[in-house]
Amino acid sequence: MNDQHPAINDLPGAAIRAAGPADAERIAALLTDEGYPAGTSDIVVRLERFAGHDGGVIVADVDGEVVGFVAIHLIPRFEHGDQVVRILALVVDPGVRDRGIGRQLMDAVEGIGRERAAAFLEVTAGHHRPDARHLFESLGYDAGLTAYLRKRL
Prior knowledge:
CATH architecture: 3-Layer(aba) Sandwich
Largest sheet: 5 strands, mixed
Strand order of the largest sheet: 1-2-3-4-5
CATH superfamily: Gcn5-related N-acetyltransferase (GNAT)
Order of helices and strands: HEHHEEEHEH
Structural class: alpha+beta
CATH topology: Aminopeptidase
Radius of gyration: 15 Å
Distance between the termini: 31 Å
Shape: globular
CATH class: Alpha Beta
């Protein structure tokens, strides 16, 4: 994902763009505020890991301040010859929630999915995050389609 990506640049409101190392401190603060402690250096490493053709991090920037981000990974499916876009994290600053920032970020992700001919997008939204679940369901994501099972290693 890069700053020239049309699905990222053509949105009104917040500037939706690819994240860079200069955004790491703010992304770390947003993640930490959501209960996932992270330092700036952690985020710099993660941004490097997700840079490239199969992943990315997109930020919503309002007047030079990152107010939200979404991290994605494109995953090829084995059972079909296509791929899915997996939304790994979506965080919007509580001070700007309900202003459409999450929708703008999701629109950018959906645009990337369409451009890459992905079969579908998938996201996990825990029951402890009802606002996130409401956002995804309002955008047409089906909460009853699959069961998500997890085992800690």
